[in-house]
Each structure stands twice: as structure tokens, then as C-alpha cells.
Specification:
By secondary structure, the chain is an all-beta fold. It contains 1 helix and 30 strands.
Length: about 350
């Protein structure tokens, strides 16, 4: 998609826009509504953009090294996320905006979510496993190997109403000690072929559902759970790998079929081609896919929104940092939370997350 960004900003927003890099994120100088960094690229996105809501930086700290894996706890009304290199999970409490260390050590956890019983699931880079925190505080290891070998480093996790747990294993935590424990074999495929897996809720057996992807990263289901979307970040280590989001049909037997490219992350802006990538992804109730975006600089970094029918990019949320992941939360599930490098941002939108977390 080619966008005349200057023409768009002046006509669609009706004001001279600031940039995400230049604006005052402290809140001392308020952002004039409508927020100029929430871009309506297609009229279809217009109804989701609130005219009197702005992007807020709700937390930042120089000691936070790489924020990932946000998940909303509806009962406690707090947001958790991982600070992977610091080997901790953090918590933002809605009542007063207080931020605390939630768990340390965390196994260099990355992706987090909550299951349908309210229990937290985490992907541990350092220990190469998926775990569940029980109500009594104990930790259950759900999956730590496949085919007799350890996982590379599980990355992101989602749950299905049937109790199945789906997760990705691209291996980043085994490629560097900074985010886990490096597997010193010199391979960009640390221990075994990168893949997407499912944990059976009755037997606990782990099944590989697809490895037809370079490095599967963020994943999410469509609102009706009939499709699975997965962000492919293989270009980080495989030259020529597409920077894209893939989609499959979920069969009645919990296998995947008819895999294809859903959306390319490449964005043409004026005379420039911004060639960044996706990471964490979530769907809203209308089936639109909201993807974190980064590694291409100003005008790209933030969140990109794609319509479900043909993967057309219809909106953007521009941030001054690389956005790693996102989730919908808040009491009405209409607040988008975004982890971005050393900060956490939020934005109220006129839709809801398709699922509870």
C-alpha cells in the first residue's frame, strides 16, 4: 500500500500533526485532540478511532530493558508484562497507576496470558518451557520438550475454549544470553525446527501443528476461533524471509490447513519503503487484526491494524519506540495496551478485544 502521508495527515486529521518522536510524553503538555498519531489510513478504521482519546505512556523507566508479553487480569484489574533481560515480570495496577515487580526471577519469561480459569500462563525463554501459575502460587510445567528434545525458547501463548494451549517456539531466548540461555551450536535454529505447538487439555500431550514458517512469533485466534494468525519474524535470521503475518484455518481435529500470507508488513510511504516487522498480535470483536510493529523507524513503529477480509492495512498508531506486543484490557476490554522497548503505552479505542486477554 502506498500512502501520501503528508496529504493524508492534513486532510483526514484536519490539523498539522506532531510526530510520535517529538510530542511530550510526560503529560505536562496535553495532546490536542484528535490524537495526530492515530492514523486512519482507510475509512473502515474511522469508527474505531476515538476523537477524544490520546495515546498515553503509562510507564517508562531506564532500568526496563525490553518489555514484552502484556496480559490483562480482569479480576485484579492489573496489567502484567515481562521485562525479559531483567528476568522479571512487572505489574501496572489500574487503581492508582502503581508499578511493581510482580515476579523475579521469571525464567526470562516472554509471552503471558490467562486461561479461562484465570490462571496465568507464561513462556519461559531461560528454561525453554511453558508454565502455569496455580491458585496456590505453585508453578506447573506444561511443556518443556518435543520429540525427545528441549524447545528452542517458547515465545507467545494463547488459549482455546476447549482448553487447548497453543504456543510458538522461534528460539530467540536460545540465540542470546541477554534474553535467556544461548544454545552454543552456531545455528539460527537453536535446538529444533521452529514451530507452532498445541498442548492437549486432557492428556497434556504436545503436538506440532505447523512448522511451515521461518520463525513463528506472536499468535492469536480470530473471534470465532476458526483461524489462527501467526507473525513470522524469520527475517531476523533468515535472509530473504518475508516480513509477514500468516493465517491458517483451524480444523475440527485441532490441526491447521490452507496456510497463506495474510498481510505483508512492508509499507510504502511517499518515496520511502518502510520494511519493518510484526511481533505480538490480537484480534478485535470485528475480526480486525492489531499488530505490534517495529524496526523501521518513525512512521512505522507502533501498531498496524489490518481488516480481516483481505489483510488491508487500515490504521496505524505511531509510537516513539519499537512496539513489541499488545493486548486489549480494562473493565470494558476497550483499552489497548502496548509494550514498547522501555515503556508501556495505552489507548482507548471504539472496539473490544475479541478474547479475554
Amino acid at each position: 500500500m502506498k500512502i501520501d502521508r503528508k496529504k493524508f495527515i492534513l486532510t483526514a486529521l484536519g490539523t498539522t500533526a506532531s510526530t510520535a518522536l517529538a510530542r511530550d510524553w510526560t503529560g505536562v503538555k496535553p495532546t490536542r485532540y484528535p490524537d495526530p498519531d492515530v492514523l486512519v489510513l482507510d475509512p473502515k478504521f474511522g469508527k474505531y478511532r476515538l476523537g477524544n482519546a490520546s495515546i498515553r505512556r503509562i510507564y517508562t523507566h531506564p532500568d526496563m530493558l525490553w518489555a514484552e508479553g502484556p496480559a490483562w487480569n480482569s479480576v485484579g484489574r492489573f496489567l502484567i508484562w515481562s521485562d525479559i533481560p531483567n528476568n522479571r515480570q512487572m505489574r501496572w495496577i489500574q487503581d492508582d497507576g502503581r508499578v511493581t515487580n510482580f515476579r523475579k526471577p521469571s525464567g526470562n519469561s516472554n509471552g503471558n496470558t490467562f486461561d479461562f480459569e484465570g490462571r496465568q500462563l507464561s513462556c519461559e525463554h531461560g528454561n525453554r518451557r511453558v508454565v502455569r501459575y496455580e491458585r496456590d502460587g505453585k508453578k506447573t510445567v506444561l511443556a518443556d520438550r518435543f520429540g525427545g528434545k528441549e524447545f528452542n525458547a517458547p515465545n507467545d501463548v494463547v488459549v482455546h475454549p476447549d482448553g487447548g494451549i497453543w504456543f510458538t517456539d522461534p528460539g530467540y531466548g536460545s540465540l542470546m544470553n541477554y534474553e535467556g540461555n544461548r544454545a552454543d551450536n552456531g545455528s539460527v535454529m537453536p535446538i529444533q525446527k521452529e514451530a507452532v505447538y498445541r498442548i492437549d487439555p486432557k492428556t497434556g500431550k504436545v503436538a506440532k501443528v505447523t512448522d511451515e514458517i521461518f520463525k513463528p512469533n506472536g499468535l492469536c485466534f480470530s473471534p470465532d476461533y476458526s483461524k489462527l494468525y501467526v507473525a513470522d519474524t524469520g527475517a531476523s535470521h533468515y535472509p530473504g524471509a518475508p516480513k509477514e503475518i500468516k493465517v491458517w484455518k483451524v480444523t475440527a481435529k485441532n490441526t491447521l490447513a490452507e496456510g497463506r500470507t495474510f498481510a505483508s508488513m512492508k509499507l510504502e510511504s511517499g518515496d520511502k519503503v518502510l520494511d519493518g516487522g510484526a511481533d505480538g498480535i490480537r484480534c478485535d470483536v470485528d475480526g480486525n487484526l492489531w499488530s505490534s510493529a517495529g524496526w523501521a523507524g518513525a512512521g512505522f513503529d507502533g501498531v498496524h491494524v489490518f481488516e480481516p477480509r483481505d489483510g488491508k492495512r487500515i490504521g496505524q498508531i505511531l509510537l516513539p519506540e519499537i512496539c513489541s506486543n499488545l493486548c486489549f484490557g480494562g473493565p470494558k476490554r476497550n483499552r489497548l495496551f502496548m509494550t514498547a522497548s522501555q515503556s508501556v503505552y495505552s489507548l482507548y479505542v471504539e472496539t473490544q478485544g475479541a478474547h479475554h486477554c
